[in-house]
Amino acid sequence: MVISKKYQMASGYLDCAVKHVLPQLPAELRRNLPVDLAEGVLRALSLQALGQGVDIQLGMAIDSAKATLAVKRRLACEMLKCWQQAQDNIMNLPLANGWGEKHHLLVKWKYVEAKAAAYYYHGLILDEGNTEKSHGMAVAALQAADEYFKESKKLCEAFNASPPLSRNPPLWGTMKYLSEKIPKDTSSKVRINRDLYTHERIMETAPTLPEFSLALKPDEYQPPPVDSSWRTENIKVTQTHSNNVNGDK
Q1: Which pTM does this prediction carry?
Q2: Which positions fall inside the BRO1 domain (predicted)?
Q3: What CATH number does domain 2-206 carry, 1.20.1250.20, 1.25.40.280, 3.40.50.620, 3.40.640.10?
């Protein structure tokens, strides 16, 4: 939980920058900021931190014998929402070169990975139903999870191949568990349900995921008071003094 809290703190710092620092900058200065400091990028980074925090919470739920499938599905859906909003914030920004392109690939990779987790747990819950329809929807959800998981692996490779080059770290936490469970459970459930029901009973499109509000919020961060030396009138006095000194020369 300590690690999850640190992600909340990081999200809070970035949220503060968007809400309290950027609005105080002159319009011309804001326009001339590098794209890395654009509002959309800062918002994406804040949401990215929350998404990683929820990922930690989901990993803890997976390890807990007391956590229900409903809890795991909610966390997976919340994680998906974080990455989806992060992607929405940067998709129209000019991140075509260097770190910007790599950042875009990271967000897309983690977004698709979160989709796989959300559809996996949604499928398991649907499979607990007692009707042919619920079982058919479960198969469709699990198949979607498997497809998104395969796509996420390709995006991971693209991320690592994008300059600056990086190594693909070994799987850990949530995805280490799901990388084994998603293909195995999907294959099993599809086979069982297609043995029980006709092909027409199996949905070909994935069911809609449930909508949850984000429980994890950025930590509230209040920046320290602005030092008097940064006040406008003091800056003008300093500039005037500097000009006088240069004039005397």
Answers
A1: 0.86
A2: 5-188
A3: 1.25.40.280
